[in-house]
Amino acid sequence: MTESDIWFQDPYAAFAQGRQAAGPSFVPALGAWVVARHDDVLEVLRRAEEFSSANTLPRDDMLPEAVRAELADSIGGRPVVVNSDGPAHRRYRAPLLAGLTPARVGQLVPWIGERAAELVDGFTQHGAGRVEFVGQYTSILAGETIGRLIGLEPADVAKAVDGTTQALIMYFFPVGDEHKAQAARKFAEMRAMLDGYVRARHGEPREDLCSALVATLAPDGGELTLEQRHEIGSNVLNLFIAGFITATPLLGTMVLNLLRHREQWELLCAKPELIPAAVEEAIRYDTSMQSVRRLTTAPVTLAGVEIPAGATLLVALASANRDPDAHDRPDTFDITRPPNEATTRHVSFGHGPHACVGAQLFREEAQATLRVLTERLPNLRLAPQEAGAMGRSAVPRDGSLQQLNLVW
User: Fold this and answer.
1) Could you give the CA distance from residue 363 to residue 347 in angstroms, rounded to a whole number?
2) What angle do CA 65, 67, 68 make, to 5 degrees?
3) Tens digit of pLDDT for each residue in 11-50?
């Protein structure tokens, strides 16, 4: 296995090696300084002025010319909440915080529970004792939930999910320029669809996050300028993509790891009061956002290691979650961990100024999923030889769990 392969095929082994170093280490195969230890990860995430988020997302200008041409006339490509700093970041974050309060998320909880039950009913009644769980459950629930918050019509959620898939192909997948250009054309259609929502909500606001973003980013009430459409459209698009690509694999890997550890699944079925703890342990044990990127704004010293200005850091959230200095028996999947350890020390949702605003929303999706599965399918198990089809990425694990076959 080459140095590059270990980061994609066995990332936790690579992280364990990284934690043995005295501080961050430069990994040529990744072109980045890897921050692997729990305390160092927290420090980077706290020091946002020195460790910028500007390189968190790929940019359109990094794409091949033929691919960029397909996006040239589309609305989007501007800074968003996850790749901005300082006042701009606070401006983009404010409407999301207002729209994702515990009370607002709580209003959605009954619908999430009902939809989770409907999806399980759908594949138990027609699935002949077998289901591909990612395609028939996690991607649907994740897409519909974030789509509902944004205010998308149900018929448009599938279009947004397809556009998200095309964006991942375009920015992350090792395919040829022609394939990337095809993906860019479909991604441009998603951008156009969301621009339509932005313009519609500007004229007739509703109780949704799209309207909240419009009201915050275009408060003067006049006709939207082209630049305002670019800015708002970019942030609406980012909100959907972020909600979808994090929740989809997290829901899947949660079920995968519970079924891999059969005694844990059976314990959960017998004691459903452990569901909140099981969700936190699943998030800690195997998070979909393995790492986030940061960029040094000046020469910095981290854990005694000097890092130059303009350096890329790969801040390994998943490694921090397996650090023995932060977690007892870190490589053991245990849903009975003390609640304070499970909920306060994992960094799956980040930390500091850029901590995930949708963390509670995911927790509600995950808890609803476990409630319905343990109640209705206690005999659920992995299909023979099933290991879960993972994507190749050291950052979002690109939808990560791309396929999971279950039987009962």
Assistant:
1) 14
2) 65
3) 888 899 899 998 999 999 889 999 999 999 999 999 999 9
